[in-house]
Each structure stands twice: as C-alpha cells, then as structure tokens.
Amino acid sequence: MSAVPKKILFAMSDTGGGHRSAAMAINAAISTASDASCTTVDFLRATRFPGLHKAPEIYDYCSKKHLWLNNLFFKKTDSVRRINTLTKMVYLQAGQHIERELAEIEPDIIVAVHPLVIGLMRLARERLQASWPIITVVTDLVTFHASWATPGADWYLTPTGEATNLLAKNGVSLQRIVHTGFPIHPKFAQARLTQTQARNELGIDSGKFTVLLTGGGVGAGGLGEWVSMLEKQCADKQILVITGNNKGLYNELKSKKMPSHINIYGFVGNMEVMMAASDIVITKAGPGTIMESAAMKRPLIITEAVGIQEIGNISYVEQNQLGYYCPSPELACKTINGIASQLCGENNPFDRREVITDGSSRIATFILQHMVGAGTQIGDGGNTLGSVS
Ligand code: UDP
Prior knowledge:
Elements: E1 7-12, H1 18-31, E2 37-42, H2 43-46, H3 55-65, H4 67-77, H5 80-105, E3 109-112, H6 118-128, E4 134-137, E5 155-158, H7 161-169, E6 177-179, H8 186-189, H9 195-202, E7 210-214, H10 223-233, E8 238-242, H11 247-255, E9 262-265, H12 271-277, E10 280-283, H13 287-295, E11 300-302, H14 311-319, E12 323-325, H15 329-342, H16 359-369
Parallel strand pairs: 1-2, 1-3, 3-4, 4-5, 5-6, 7-8, 7-10, 8-9, 10-11, 11-12
The structure holds uridine-5'-diphosphate.
C-alpha cells in the first residue's frame, strides 16, 4: 500500500504579490523533490474579521494612493507585544473560521510566508492540540515589521544576514533561525530562454535595448508618471510596462495611443520571460522583484521604497551591487545609458554570485526534513540543513 502524501499548508495573505510568489516558489521546489500536496490559504481573509479580511484590498489601495496610512499602521504596531495582543483579539472573534479551514486541510506542516499569520497559526495549534510544526519564511530583506518575530513558529528561515540579526534583536532565539536565502522561484535561476528567444516569444523587437518597468503585484510606485517620462527620455529604447493588478492604470495606458516602442502588460504569469527579454529592470524596492532580477542577472534601477519595510532594500541593492537607486526619471535615463555601455560584450558586472539564488530549494529541503513524521522533533534545534553564512 502506498503512503498517503504529506500535506503542506502555506499560510499567507495577498497583501502585495510577494507573499503568494514566495509560496508558489517554495511549492515549485517541493514538487521537484516530493509528492507532498501543497495548499495556500489567505488566513487574513479567512478570519472574516472586520477590516482584516479586506487586508489585500486595503494594502492595494494604500500602496497606490495613501502610503502614509500603511506607514502609520507599520509604526503604531511595530512591536511583538502589540502584535501578540492584536492577534489574540482577532483570534477570539475569528478562531472558529481559522480552525474550520485547518480541520479541512489537516496539514502535516504549516509554512507562514506572511508575518501577521504566525500568531494565528500558533493559537490554532494550541487550541486544537495539534502537533504540526510551524515554519516562518521571512520575505522581507532588511528593514521589516516586528511581527515577523511573533513567537510560536518552530523555525524562522531568513533571506539575508540582516534579517537574521533583526529577528534576533526582536527576541527570536538564534537556534531557531536558519539563513536559507530568499524563496526565488526556480524558474528564474533556471531560465530556459536566451534574450533573443524571450523577445521572440513576446513578439517584440529582438534588436533593441529593452527596459522592463514594474511596480510589484499591485502596480505601485507611480508607474503612470514613469511611463510618460520614459516615453520621452528613453525614446530609443524598447519599454515593457507591467501594471500588475493595477487595472485602472492598465486601462488608462491601453486607451492612450502609445508609441510602438512601449508595450503594456497587465498582471503577467511569465515574469521570468519578461526579465529574460530585458536588459534592465526598473522597479519599486520590492524584495521579490529585486531577488528575481538578481537571479536573472538583470541590473536594477530602484525608484522608491513603497512602505517602511522596503526602505532597507535600497541600500541592499546598492551594497550588493545589484543596481542603482534613481528616484527621478532623469537620473534613471542617464543611468540606463551608462549601463547600456557596460553591458556590451561578455562581461556582465551584475552577475552577483554572492546572492543566494537557490533559496527555494534550500527552504523546500528544510520543510521536507521537518514535517510531522519526518523524524525531527519540534524544538530540537532542527537545523539539519545548515545555515549559510
Ligand atoms: N509579479 C507577477 N506578475 C506581475 C507583477 C508582479 O508575477 O504582473 C510578481 C513578481 O514576479 C514578484 C511579486 O509579484 O514575485 C512582487 O513582489 P515584490 O516583493 O516585488 O512586491 P509586492 O507586490 O510584494 O509589493
């Protein structure tokens, strides 16, 4: 009789595109190594708690129109104690909905890829007297909300040394922290297409220097203004604009008569092809896009930090020589021209080998080693993968 496949539950919320991308990346790495089944649940939605269940829409709206509100929430709640109290309040009201979801899935392990679900999962485990381990995968790089350090997870997997230090500063024991690298989808590191093949697949000019402009899952970061400026100042370049879930901007740009060197896309499912086709990526300081570009060896131009949690990513990009911070399109265009001359020939100065690009497979290995029945007990230190320095 064959064994029943193990069940892995990704607990997250669709605030931005990065948390779901992380779950999908780890899922893809797991599926190459195991027949475990993976389910992803937005547990902030599942709470049905007033306001909280609309977290994705609120994040979306505030990131584009009222960033100060996101930042105010960040500052007012940036403490493990406060988050614990708020989580308990939410659980009192919403525990039944969370427990119902969990009872349906019966997970063997929970992987939290969003900071605000860690405490909910811990409370559910206590209430249900369950034994599934909880692994937190931190998806912010450098400056992040204290809620990532919410107690209750058995392990905390970090993308950078800076993240390890910040978790420890917020009270997580170093024995529970493993530096695995960021969960970049394997499709980026194992890019199958050359630049010309990718351009042909997209049906764009295969001979033109190509700039990819993106603003994360929500299409934030003043994309509209950047398009108008690049249209004028980078007229000799081919520009691919990804509006993500920003449908308003997509419709607005599509309704205008755009010059032929500007191509507009909505939410794309083939970011690896878009990046393969490009020479350079312009983006807000989103961790997912930064690490995917690094894996694809595409230099970055960072336009701004959308939210306090992205501020440290700017210096991360500069210090690791992944690209440049250019808050104005004028500076960006000058930098793009400079990069265009550096990228000639074989030499790619943006091939940063020190950035870990196989984070998802390291995380997948760790998860598979720590599922119920996999032989490792909760709280035994459990670092069978070994941390990277
Ligand atoms: N993304 C995508 N399609 C799009 C726009 C974005 O798949 O049209 C993905 C992108 O590849 C990355 C994530 O969404 O994995 C964005 O994450 P990031 O951390 O850059 O920003 P966030 O959306 O979380 O603010």
